[in-house]
């Protein structure tokens, strides 16, 4: 029988009583490898009740003990790195190396969460008025929840629950229904690391289960990562219900290439950043903006793209894997057709891509358009496939204006040998994460993941200091003690025995 993915409620892996199940398939073969349950209302209510109960003791657990759980968890994740990557590759189709990277980026966040004692340190000022001091503490919120996308089933759950729990909260995770096996393994290891019963719960499902999270009064904060329409919906409904919400959404990331850039670096970085992970990364480069004479490199980049090919998770020579589903493949192919109809020049066509021994995979090969204009649908939409759109401008100013006019603001990069051009770009561009001669500038967890504009709805970002603030309250205490109350140790009113 096909494996049924368990729920994780009150410290137990349990089989759901639901009648609704969603198939989990291997995207290279279409083999159904598991079934995701859509948790029932009773099961979700039980998860909330257990998370509320666990919070009462977990918030009183000394911070150094909470940090030690994260240290043990980090060690276990490292020990099981390859095994988790294999599970991840089987349900996402990612190549093994890419799957390992997904796990590793999550491990780094757990390492960050292990620093929780210093991250929680508050502020103090003595003598804010005569004899009065003010100091602040960072306290947990209560029950928090996370809703995650399919494209990083290890990294993104690990952006959320370790830090939330290290802050003293309890957490309910709703992973993507398309690849729930990786998060299940992460949770087994979390339990093994000594996390007490109830601090982490996992409910599975889709829209109905998300709506439960959005409406459940006991849930104080929601972290979401996924597409733009769903992110907007979650931000609106969650905040209407008076919850704290951070919603990380889709993107259209531009790479600006100056004519003085290191050409071979540009070519190899652009190829990896546009079609790596089949373009299914929120920080993938999907638009290349060639400034001035740099546009002469377009044919060479197209030739390089033709040389890379997709393949199955166990194919060491493959540059990337299949798309997550037949629907995702169809959507990307529709965009390629539309791009041709809109008048863009199709330099590399990834349709009709075949991979030996895997006739049923959701394959789309590297694809590149040139002469793309900003009114085209292939420019306006996040395609989320291995498709690079090339456009050009005469000047750096025009390139900056083009990037700033785009509604998204997740990431951007610039390739140049000029410090002055780079300084101008990083200062003027209205995008939250900028790479200078770095194609995919994802900050390490001691910074925060800071998408802007249509790529992020909320105020406080993921991980780093902002992540800690998102999952906590600040309590500010102003205190005065009266000198006249000090016991007179020498006199008849002596109340303290100092011996
Ligand atoms: P998605 O929005 O389809 O799904 C994300 C989550 O929302 C899943 O858990 C899903 O079950 C749930 N969901 C889906 N439809 C829903 C609905 N109608 N109502 C309520 N919940 C719903 O996203 P996806 O396809 O899994 O992931 C890809 C998207 O995520 C891309 O747009 C990508 O750019 C984005 N993403 C963004 C970041 C970032 O940091 N900005 C990181 C990774 C992925």
Descriptive account of the structure:
The chain has helices spanning 41-58, 63-79, 81-92, 96-113, 116-119, 155-166, 181-192, 207-215, 228-240, 263-275, 298-307, 326-342, 377-380, 396-405, 419-428, 464-470; strands at residues 7-9, 12-14, 21-25, 32-37, 124-129, 132-140, 143-147, 170-174, 200-202, 219-225, 244-248, 253-257, 285-291, 345-348, 367-370, 387-393, 408-409, 412-415, 434-436, 452-453, 456-457, 472-480. With 499 residues, the protein is α/β, with parallel strands linked by helices. It has 2 domains: 3-249 and 455-478, Aldehyde Dehydrogenase, Chain A, domain 1 (3-Layer(aba) Sandwich); 253-436, Aldehyde Dehydrogenase, Chain A, domain 2. Helix 3 (81-92) crosses helix 4 and helix 3 runs antiparallel to helix 7 (181-192). The longest helix is centred in the N-terminal third of the chain and has 18 residues, at 41-58. The structure holds nicotinamide-adenine-dinucleotide (NAD). The site of nicotinamide-adenine-dinucleotide has 28 residues, from helix 8 and helix 9. Pfam families: Aldedh (PF00171). Belongs to the aldehyde dehydrogenase family. Residues 13-477 form the Aldehyde dehydrogenase domain.
């Amino acid at each position: 029988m096909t494996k049924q993915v368990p729920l994780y409620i009150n410290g137990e892996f349990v089989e759901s009583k639901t009648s609704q199940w969603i198939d989990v398939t291997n995207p290279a073969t279409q083999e159904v490898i598991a079934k995701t349950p859509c948790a029932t209302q009773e099961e979700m209510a039980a998860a909330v009740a257990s998370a509320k109960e666990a919070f009462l003791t977990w918030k009183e657990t000394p911070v150094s003990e909470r940090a030690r759980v994260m240290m043990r968890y980090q060690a276990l994740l490292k020990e099981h790195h390859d095994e988790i990557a294999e599970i991840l590759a089987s349900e996402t189709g990612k190549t093994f190396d890419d799957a390992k990277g997904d796990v590793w980026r999550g491990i780094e966040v757990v390492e960050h969460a292990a620093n929780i004692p210093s991250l929680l340190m508050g502020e103090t000022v003595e003598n804010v008025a005569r004899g009065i001091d003010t100091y602040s503490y960072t306290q947990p919120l209560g029950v928090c929840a996370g809703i995650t996308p399919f494209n990083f089933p290890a990294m993104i759950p690990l952006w959320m629950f370790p830090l939330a729990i290290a802050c003293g909260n309890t957490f309910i995770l709703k992973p993507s229904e398309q690849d729930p096996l990786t998060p299940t393994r992460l949770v087994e290891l979390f339990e093994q690391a000594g996390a007490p019963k109830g601090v982490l719960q996992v409910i599975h499902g889709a829209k109905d289960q998300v709506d439960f999270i959005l409406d459940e009064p006991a849930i104080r904060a929601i972290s979401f990562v996924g597409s733009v329409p769903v992110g907007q919906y979650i931000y609106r409904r969650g905040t209407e219900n008076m919850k704290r919400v951070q919603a990380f959404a889709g993107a259209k990331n531009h790479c600006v290439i100056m004519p003085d850039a290191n050409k071979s670096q540009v070519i190899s970085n652009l190829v990896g950043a546009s079609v790596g992970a089949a373009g299914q990364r929120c920080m993938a480069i999907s638009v290349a903006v060639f400034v001035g004479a740099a546009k002469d490199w377009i044919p060479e980049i197209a030739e390089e793209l033709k040389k890379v090919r997709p393949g199955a998770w166990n194919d060491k020579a493959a540059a990337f894997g299949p798309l997550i589903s037949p629907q995702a493949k169809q959507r990307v192919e529709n965009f390629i057709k539309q791009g041709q109809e809109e008048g863009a020049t199709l330099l590399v066509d990834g349709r009709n891509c075949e991979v030996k021994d895997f006739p049923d995979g959701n394959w789309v090969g590297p694809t590149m358009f040139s002469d793309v204009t900003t009114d085209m649908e292939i420019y306006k939409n996040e395609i989320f496939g291995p498709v690079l759109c090339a456009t050009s401008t005469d000047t750096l100013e025009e390139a900056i204006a083009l990037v700033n006019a785009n509604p998204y603001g997740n990431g951007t990069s610039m390739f140049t040998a000029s410090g002055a051009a780079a300084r101008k770009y990083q200062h003027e561009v209205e995008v939250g994460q900028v790479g200078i001669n770095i194609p995919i500038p994802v900050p390490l967890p001691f910074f925060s993941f800071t998408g802007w504009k249509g790529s992020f709805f909320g105020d406080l970002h993921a991980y780093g200091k902002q992540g800690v603030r998102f999952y906590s309250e600040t309590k500010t205490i102003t205190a005065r003690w009266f000198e006249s109350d000090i016991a007179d140790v020498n006199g008849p009113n002596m109340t303290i025995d100092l011996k």
